Amino acid sequence: MLRAGLRWMFLIIGTTIGAGYASGRELWQFFGHESGLAILLFVLFFTVSCIVILHVSYKRKSTHYLPVLRDIVGTKLTGVYDVMIFLYLFTTTVVMIAGSGATVQAFNYSYWWGVGVIVLALFFLFMKGINGILSINLFILPLLLSGLLFVLILFTIDQELALFSHWHEQRNWTAAFPFTALNILPLIAVLGAIGNKIRSRKEIWIAAIGSGLILGVISYIYNNSLIQIADEMLLYEIPLFAILKHYSFEMLIFMSILLWFAIFTTAASGVLGIVTRIQQYFNSPLWLIVILTLVTMIPLTALGFSTLVSYLYPIYGILNLYVLTRLLLFPIWNNMEKT
């Protein structure tokens, strides 16, 4: 039970911590100054949302996200959000592939080398199906989370940063709503694909509470660190590198590798949501659908990583607010629709 709960917890975290989050770009886009309360609210909203999604997925024994989506947003809006989820997964996976290019480019290698490496890695991963994704999450994410926390805590100590000195200034608390909403839609897609693999409700509680707390702690420390380097943010496509410049080249290499794996796990989660949905219409091998999907994504990565994040993420954060509302009020909506 504990192992299974941790497996779903790492799947949730792997879906959330991608190029936008791990690089710091997504956190800075929504939070920044006066956001301590916003991050606390995010933890609460995110945990409740994960519990509801996993519960519905478990109840339906789903193998793709459509039955879960139907229960959450209602029959009338299912078609609209089905298209939205598909577009969201497609465009954010493009962002992840672009993030791989930006990571490699930071070391003065070709942007397209980074794109090519992640596309090939995704193809080989899906040769092993869904179990390949779950296995890589269990291996990579503990390393990533430990590495990221280590760097952020080290930076906090070295710069003598005060973690709780500005709690009387919390005017940005409303950012919790679009930030949580942004991260909810891919979770419906990914967690909707594993409903038939969940064995008990205890797994759901472990996964939801564990992922909410871990993401909350990292988000708070990360955001606090980014505030200190706000003036340098324009100089870096990936804000994390502005923090890492204070440390050795070996540390930069190590964290860049972990950042790339964060990008990779989120891209894998996005592709999983896309291909399991497409398989409902086409009786083709998984690997073939993966190839065709990735080939169509490559040209769009030319737009660039920071450009994609700055335009797409706020739009999706606003559009997904209705889904977040339905999730937070799910017990009430559910009872109303039964009466």
Automatic annotation (TrEMBL):
InterPro entries: YkvI-like. The keyword Magnesium does not apply. The keyword Aminoacyl-tRNA synthetase does not apply. Keywords: Membrane, Transmembrane, Transmembrane helix. It comes from the Bacteria. The chain crosses the membrane at residues 38-58, 79-98, 110-127, 134-155, 175-195, 204-222, 251-274, 286-305, 311-333. This is Membrane protein YkvI. It comes from Virgibacillus tibetensis.
